């Protein structure tokens, strides 16, 4: 693959040409060059991942403007880093040195909501929560709900194939993307997919773009599948005296054919962190807290059945909610988890290893061993129903030795995930954070074909170079 | 893309070399060369599509044997046509002249069924019904149910991204393929995807192979997602005095937030054909018959709600089943539809146009107009809940003028589908039958990128050449 020599930001002449050319197709207010401003676009939430300084930040409002940006980038061989709300956790939206940051946040119109066809058509800058509420007014439901849903954009969700709490029942973003309009590296516009419920005309390029972290093209419009809004969910909390028992309950629930709308696990470390921060009065003896929810027509019956399975697996206490308010209360501990873990040491590195759910207990035991080995606090929050764990390494970045141990433990957690038949990333993506690990997961032949696909779409390697590979 | 000159089957010397090389890695009984036998592998069910004569048919039983076949094919530049049960309807499995037919039917082992992880691992030659029944014994459900499910293979289902009656609730084959082992054109083995519930490591190559009609690689193993087995479904039949009223009912049902497990429509022509063949005593006044089913925990309540919507849309009669036996009886007319339409003239050409369900009425009216214009019998069976119509053109192949009109009407139906915002194929694929139409649907930029993907995986163009493009 050809390597691009990016113009250095010091290279004022080159940047001047770049900006002049961009201004040929963009209004002045859509082209930001003040270094203090552009520097603020350097990072997503993976602040410890390396990032360069953008040469310029552009904020197009139309497809034509995006095409102009890509034509300019191709002409000058300047790398382009597409960005949404920069809430990603893998550095996929981090700037590379001298790049054009292409922020899609101003393309934020919902173009259509169709309750008969159960689709929405949206621009990439629409915020997840805005779309979710808008479709909700039509009795519809857009399930993908990453933790950052109040801030993150649909385009970012598509770029990172993001998940959330709902995935155990409703799957990930990928399953809701029916068709895309994409501006290619050279500025041409391509439509993929469909607005119908089914369609198999040619290769599924739509799905190829989902999770491609802006490395194959710029999504400028998406046709999204919707579902009818389900009834409000009812939540059950179950406390266990061991993580293994909680994982056993997860297996029994899934093997028993239940379809929870949420099945989350917090380990001892996380429970303690939440207690310390928010005085939630969760019992100190709790080694694992399991939260299950059902959004069925008879959720109380489902909770009763699942509660019995939890007890059979050794739950020390089972608390089913009676109504939505109680449910919300039970979920609060889960919602506070990451903030509470952050408070332990100031900084966290959130891993995202997904294992077959039958191996979840081994994963949690392994993380405990790793925490002990590296003398670190590592809390685990898990989308347990999916086997998707977020081992969260707490460390003080001012302490170089602890930082090194944090990084090493983070890697050892991924190695463990692979050993258990899992993946290094269930929903956060590869970005910069895990690019050395991608090859370990998919092997040399897979890597070669991944690169061949990249080469087919971006022969000049100007689209988010240095990410994924 | 490079064009391959296939060795002609008359070219005995070349075929001799090919067979000798194949026998270097395959047992004698896995290499068929008797022309009478190999000729029987020339076609799938699209018998009117052109097909060549295979030079040889191979029936490998192991991954290594498939790798040997592909290495041989690459060395000699011989095209390879992968086949399952040859029940496809688009000619995607039709032999090309002088090709190796690579039949995967002997790789038919179910390698694993895991109720906790809700996955099955299967070889490509496993028959859909065999897998469905096997997972059913574990309380699990593999939804994809093409009409040919008693004969068709999982590998064929993956290659064509096939659908079925269940799709309105459970989606198509693509949604159940989590990971693949694929033998590439040059014989190397690649693993894609995962066996976990989620995973976003790198580009989604798994999904790229689904529906690729054997043109990118040979699927030799699949990890399939499963669901818990739902309760048995209960069926309702509703008769309408116009197709438009039946389509209106479909829209009301979907807009109303209902999630039927089946929502099928038969038009007047189909109802008449079934009556003529099977004396089903469906009222002659029926202009459209709608069948809806629910596999929920309280299906009678769902049927009542949907029945009321049908009546509001003008249904002349609504018949809800009381039990599984009655449900089966109501479904019989649907099951007999294609056989009954075949009986009209001896041969049918089954189209597969999918439109947004809000445009279903226009599609049906349009097909009526086209049937009249071309003086043909065209019956429509539709997966109405998905907007996926199967206008079935009845014609006598011995009548050249009628055959010409059949072909023209078939094309006009696709044009109408595109005009209504639909796709030329909802679930049958492109194959040979619709390859001239693919470009019309996806446009020149899309075609170029489709070809670039093909080029990346199959630079010598030996994998099912002449299909799709």
From TrEMBL, chains A, B:
It comes from Streptomyces luteogriseus. Its cofactor is FAD. This is Glycolate oxidase. It is an enzyme of class 1 (oxidoreductase). Its EC number is 1.1.3.15. GO terms for molecular function: (S)-2-hydroxy-acid oxidase activity; FAD binding. Keywords: FAD, Flavoprotein, Oxidoreductase. Belongs to the FAD-binding oxidoreductase/transferase type 4 family. InterPro entries: FAD-bd_oxidored_4_C, FAD-bd_PCMH, FAD-bd_PCMH-like_sf, FAD-bd_PCMH_sub2, FAD-linked_Oxase-like_C, FAD-linked_OxidoTrans_Type4, Oxid_FAD_bind_N, Vanillyl_alc_oxidase_C-sub2. It holds the Pfam family FAD_binding_4. Residues 50-229 form the FAD-binding PCMH-type domain. Gene3D superfamilies: 3.30.465.10, 3.30.70.2740, Vanillyl-alcohol Oxidase, Chain A, domain 4 (1.10.45.10).
